[in-house]
User: Which sequence fits this backbone?
């Protein structure tokens, strides 16, 4: 099977800003890795999550007054835009010169990296990554976060939770549910999962901190992670 070199990455905000501080060491390694792959003919669309900035603003805003979920969504989208600008500028001349919000935008460019942010309320940036996969005719989204696997139940609540190497969309949705909330934490958001299922797009969940593992996956070698589809 021909190796796909048009790569869609949903880059979790937990990797960019894990605890309110920019993950400088990780981003240096991530940048070096992506630039190395450009020389091998790869192209990338990287969609950023909100991370620590989103959680901070979300939490503190609710201490001031009652906030509608719609407005919390807009806060989160703004956080993804700030993170996206950070990622865009660290790739400088290698990237398309502006962050793209609408994942259905048709872009003609010789740049090999496109950086995108969240778009509309009602879902996470994961759904935008699926839209980008449809837009770019990619068959898979790589979801980079701070977990090694999808588990059969929440490992924070259930110590006996088992890691899964593969799972169908139907079974995955049974685990994460089907409803969206700005405060919902899931390996891949429910609205994004339903869209990926509809479009027959697979998602591979990997721990982004392990760059070597990501390289193994792209090279078709043994890797640690979960394929959903």
Assistant:
């Amino acid at each position: 099977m021909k190796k796909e070199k048009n790569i869609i990455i949903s880059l979790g905000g937990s990797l960019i800003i894990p605890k309110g501080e920019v993950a400088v060491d990780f981003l240096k390694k991530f940048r070096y890795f992506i630039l190395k792959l450009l020389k091998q003919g790869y192209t990338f669309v990287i969609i950023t999550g909100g991370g620590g900035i989103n959680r901070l603003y979300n939490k503190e805003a609710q201490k001031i007054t009652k906030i509608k979920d719609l407005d919390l969504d807009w806060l989160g989208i703004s956080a993804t835009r700030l993170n996206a600008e950070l990622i865009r500028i660290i790739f400088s001349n290698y990237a398309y010169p502006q962050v793209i919000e609408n994942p259905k935008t048709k872009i003609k460019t010789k740049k090999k990296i496109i950086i995108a942010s969240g778009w509309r309320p009602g879902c996470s940036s994961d759904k935008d990554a699926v839209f980008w996969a449809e837009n770019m005719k990619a068959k898979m989204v790589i979801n980079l976060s701070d977990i090694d696997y999808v588990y059969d139940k929440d490992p924070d609540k259930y110590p006996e939770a088992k890691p899964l190497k593969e799972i169908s969309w139907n079974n995955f949705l049974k685990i994460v549910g089907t409803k969206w909330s700005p405060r919902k934490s899931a390996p891949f958001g429910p609205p994004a999962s339903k869209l990926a299922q509809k479009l027959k797009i697979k998602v591979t969940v990997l721990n982004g901190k392990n760059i070597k593992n990501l390289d193994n996956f792209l090279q078709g070698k043994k890797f640690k992670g979960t394929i959903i589809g």
Observations:
- Strands lie at 6-11, 43-48, 113-116, 140-145, 150-151, 163-164, 166-167, 202-207, 226-228.
- The CA atoms of residues 35 and 48 lie 18 Å apart.
- The chain has a mean pLDDT of 91.
- The chain has one domain: 6-228.
